[in-house]
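::Encoded backbone::
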Amino acid sequence: MQARVLIAILAGLTILANLLFGVGWGLALAAGVAVFVVGEGVGLVARRRARGAIPATGSHPLSRREVEVAVLIAQGLTSKEVGRKLFIERGTVDTHVQHIYNKLNIDSRPQLAVWLMERGLLPRASATK
């Protein structure tokens, strides 16, 4: 059975259970919608991760945000450009870069690009600019 069908069934059961426990229609419906929305969100993340759009954490020491910053840095963007793209301050980008370098025991952007490519986090074409 598809995951979406199971999520819809679970949302319906949530509504039914809330009604059986005496919760009003509005709150019961809200709970069911919340279950459905959260389930869909989890499914979306799982599908995107399976396609490689979101790198899995745990297979490397970097956080998701550090991976985002690292990929943009390795693609040749300056700290200022990365900051604008991710809506964070340049100083925050620089702090992320320093944490990335410390975690990976590297000290240059080319080394970072190689590290990302070796782990499939950066397409080869992106490494050159």
User: Anything to note?
Assistant: The chain has a mean pLDDT of 84. Residues 64-127 form a domain with the Arc Repressor Mutant, subunit A fold (CATH 1.10.10.10). The CA atoms of residues 61 and 103 lie 7 Å apart. The chain has six helices and no strands.
